Amino acid sequence: MSTSMTAPSPAAPTTPPRVLSAALSEHVGARIRIAGWLHRRRLLKSVAFAIVRDRSGLAQVVVSEEVARARLEELNEETVVEVTGTVVANPAAPGGVELVEPVITVLGEAEAPPFDLYRPSLRATLPTLLDRAPVSLRHPRRKAAFELASAATMGFRETVAAMDFTEIFTPKIVASATESGANVFAIDYFGRPGYLAQSPQFYKQTMVGVFERVFEVGPVFRAEPHDTVRHLAEYTSLDVEFGFIESYRDVAEVLREVVAGMVSAVAERAAAAVALLEPVVPQVPSRFPELHFAEALELISRETGEDLSGVNDLSPAHERWVGEWARREHGSDFAVVVGYPMSKRPFYTAEDPGRPGYSDSFDLLFRGTEMVTGGRRLHRYADYLAAIAAQGGSPEPYAGYLEAFKHGMPPHGGFAIGLERFVAQLTGVANIREVTLFPRDLHRIAP
Amino acid sequence: MSTSMTAPSPAAPTTPPRVLSAALSEHVGARIRIAGWLHRRRLLKSVAFAIVRDRSGLAQVVVSEEVARARLEELNEETVVEVTGTVVANPAAPGGVELVEPVITVLGEAEAPPFDLYRPSLRATLPTLLDRAPVSLRHPRRKAAFELASAATMGFRETVAAMDFTEIFTPKIVASATESGANVFAIDYFGRPGYLAQSPQFYKQTMVGVFERVFEVGPVFRAEPHDTVRHLAEYTSLDVEFGFIESYRDVAEVLREVVAGMVSAVAERAAAAVALLEPVVPQVPSRFPELHFAEALELISRETGEDLSGVNDLSPAHERWVGEWARREHGSDFAVVVGYPMSKRPFYTAEDPGRPGYSDSFDLLFRGTEMVTGGRRLHRYADYLAAIAAQGGSPEPYAGYLEAFKHGMPPHGGFAIGLERFVAQLTGVANIREVTLFPRDLHRIAP
C-alpha cells in the first residue's frame, strides 16, 4: 500500500515506459517499450519482422537475432506481446521508424486466429465474421467503423449540450407497448407482463415538461419480424425533444446543427478511421433542401409516369429519387421531405395547420435513404384523447404519458437518429450488421 | 417552404424574441417575451403576481390591469404561458427584475396540479411523487438532482474520452445470464429464450481486445427480489475497461481521475442545481486512502471487539466504519478497500499474486457506502476454463466471451459506477428512487 503509482513494478524493475506505435517517431534513438497484438509475422530468409498492433496503429519490429527469431516463429498471430527495443528511422518501414534489438515478452497467449487479420480485408462471410465478432472486430477496417460511431456520438452530445439540452435516462422496461402492440418484446417482470421500450418517445416528451430540452442516447428494441440488411432488433437511438417551437422547422433546424456537429466530430476525432475507410464525409448545407411530400409525389409522377394518386408513403425507390433530386438541384447529400400524410404517422403527430391531412413532420434522407424522423407533436390533453379515440384506442394504457399533457405542455417536437444507420450510410456498407458490434436480429442473439 | 427560419410566425407578427428568465436583467427597459409554466399565482388585493418557471429559473410578472388579472385568476398553476412585457428593475423581485404591462397568452392548458409545486418541498409521500412523476419532477428540487446527474455523466465521458477511451454500445438482449443465473429478467426472443444483460461486463472485456480502452453508459437490469432504498431493477451504469495494466492500482488511479472529472463537472455545469440542493461537493484527494480488506477487519475487530474471523465480506456497518476511518485519518470522503476475498468475487476476478485467497480488486466507498467495484480480471484462456470449472460450470454458455481470451488478451481491468447511487450519495437522499426519473423495482413498472 505504500508503493506509489509511479514506481516501477517489482517484476520488471528496468522496464522503460510504454509508447504507442503512432508516437514512435518521437523517440528515435531511445530504448522504449511497445505493447499490443502480434498482428503479423513475416519470416524472411535473412530477417524476420513482427508487426505489433496497438490502439494507435501498427509498429514494425526487426528480429534478426536467432533465439528471438526462433521464439517469434512459435507465436501465433494475435498473441499479446510487450516489446522493448531501440527506435531507429527507416523510411521503408510503416511510419518511417522501426524497433531493433527487441526483447519480446508474451503477456497473453493466442491460438491461431480463424482468419488473417492482417489482410486488407477479411476473407470470410458476414455470418462467420459475426459469429467470431471478438476476433473479427480487431481487423483495422471493422474497428474503424466503431471509432466513427464513437466520434459521431460524442459530436451529437456536445452539440445538444451546447444548446442547453439535459441528458436523461428513461426506462427500457415499460408497462405497455410504446407506440403499437406490434414488434414489441415481452418480458417476465417479477411474474407480471412487461415490455422492452421500442423508443423513449413518451418519456422524452414528458420530460420536456420538466427540462424543456432533453436528449438521450440509449438502446431501443424492435421485434422486427423481417430479416433485411437495414433492420436490427436492438439499436442505438440518439433522441432529442424540446419545447416552445412553432413548427417542424424549428426541429429541422436543430437537427441540421446536430448532423453538422456529428459530421465534424467524425472528421476531427476519428481522423485515423476516416483515413482508413475513406468515407465520403458529407457537406452539411446551411439549410437542408426541402420538398413537401405531395410535391415529391408530383415531381416523381411527372418524371416517371407512375400513377401515385392515393399513395401515402415513399417507397425506397421514391426516397432514392428524392436523394438524386437533392444532389442534382442543391448539390446536397441531405434532403428533408415534409408533410407526410397524417395516416402514416403515429397518433402523437401534429397536423400542418395550413394543410389538413398532412403532418407537421418530416423525414431526413441521407443519400436517398431515410435516416431520421422528426416533427412537431400534439401538446394539448384534449387532442391526445381525440387522437387515441380516433384510432379506436383507450386512454387507460397511456395514463402515465397523458399525465404530462393534463398538467400543461408547450408546443414541442423532436427527432431520433439511428446511430448504426447513420454510420452504415456514411461508410456505405451493404449491411447494417457490419457496423453493429453484436447485432441482434430474427436469427441472432449471440455472441 | 420559402419562409425562412428567422421570419416571425404569421400568428404573432410582432412577437419579440424569447428571453430566458435567468437573462432578464440584461434586458431592463426592453419589451421582451418569456415563456414557461405558471409556477405560482399570488393574488393580492392591489396587485397580482404571476411567477413563470422556465428551464433557467423563475420570473416575476406584475399584473395590475383588471382584465389581465381576471384572466390570470382563471388559469391553473402549470398552465404553459407566453408573456410579453417590459422588464423593469425591482430590488425586491427575484433576480432584481420583473415584467410589467404583461400580455399573457396560453400555450398549453393545465388542470390543477395534484400538489403545490411552488412550495420549498413537495408535500406528498414518495409513492405519490413517483406515481405522478411527470408532474412531481417539475419541482425545482426534484429536477435539480437530474441536472447533477446529467452534468456528472458528461464529466465522466469527457474524462475518459481525454484518456483515449472509445465509447461502445453492447447488446442488452443476451443469450445467457451474464454473471449468474439469479436476478435475471427473461424475455421472449422471437419464440426463443433470451435475457436482459445484468451488466456489460463480458462485452466490455471482449472489446479491450479490439480498442484497448472502452467505456459505456447504459442501462443494466437486475431482477432484485428485495425492496430496499438502495436497489433498482434497472439503473444506469458507467462502465470502464482497459488493457495493459499491472494491478488494481492502475484501475483505481483511472477511477480517481474519473470521479474527479465527475465532481468538477457537477460544480461547473450544474451550478444552479448545486446552489439549490447544496450537496456537500467532495474533495477528491490526489490518491484515495486505501485499506486492505484483512487490515480493515483487524482494525474494526480491535476497535469494536467483534469476532470477525472467517468473515469474507464487509457489512454496511463495516463500510460505515471504513468511511469514518477515511474521514478521521485522511480527511477524505472516499476510501478504497482492496483485496476482498476471492470467494466473494465473480469468477473473472484476478487473484493478488502476492496474497493468495485475496483478489486483485477493490471497492470504492463514498461516505461509507460502496459506490464502485473494480479490479483486475483474469486474461488467460486457461485461467478462465479453470475458474469456470472450479465453480462447477461448463464453458459452453460462455463461448462467445471465451473466444476473446482464446485469441490473445492483455492483462486488463475496469470498474462500474452506478449513476443513481452516486447522485443519491452526493445529495444525501434517503431513497435512491428520489434520484431516478422512472424507477423500476419489485413493485413498480409504471409510469
TrEMBL record, chains A, B:
GO molecular function: aspartate-tRNA ligase activity; aspartate-tRNA(Asn) ligase activity; ATP binding; RNA binding
Class of enzymatic activity (EC top level): ligase
Subcellular location: Cytoplasm
Pfam families, per the entry: tRNA-synt_2, tRNA_anti-codon
GO biological process: aspartyl-tRNA aminoacylation
Substrates-to-products reaction catalysed: tRNA(Asx) + L-aspartate + ATP = L-aspartyl-tRNA(Asx) + AMP + diphosphate
Binding site for ATP: 222-224, 230-232, 370, 418-421
Domain (Aminoacyl-transfer RNA synthetases class-II family profile): residue spans on this chain: 156-447
Listed GO CC annotations: aminoacyl-tRNA synthetase multienzyme complex; cytosol
Annotated region described as Aspartate, given as residue ranges: 201-204
InterPro entries on file: Aa-tRNA-synt_II, aa-tRNA-synth_II, aa-tRNA-synth_II/BPL/LPL, Asp-tRNA_synthase_2, Asp/Asn-tRNA-synth_IIb, NA-bd_OB-fold, NA-bd_OB_tRNA
Keywords for the protein's UniProt record, in alphabetical order: Aminoacyl-tRNA synthetase, ATP-binding, Cytoplasm, Ligase, Nucleotide-binding, Protein biosynthesis
EC numbers, comma separated: 6.1.1.23
Binding site for L-aspartate: 179, 222, 373, 377
Signal peptide: none
Site-annotated residues for Important for tRNA non-discrimination: 94
Subunit structure: Homodimer.
HAMAP family, sorted: Asp_tRNA_synth_type2
Family: Belongs to the class-II aminoacyl-tRNA synthetase family. Type 2 subfamily.
Main function: Aspartyl-tRNA synthetase with relaxed tRNA specificity since it is able to aspartylate not only its cognate tRNA(Asp) but also tRNA(Asn). Reaction proceeds in two steps: L-aspartate is first activated by ATP to form Asp-AMP and then transferred to the acceptor end of tRNA(Asp/Asn).
Protein name in the entry: Aspartate--tRNA(Asp/Asn) ligase
Organism from which the protein derives: Stackebrandtia nassauensis (strain DSM 44728 / CIP 108903 / NRRL B-16338 / NBRC 102104 / LLR-40K-21)
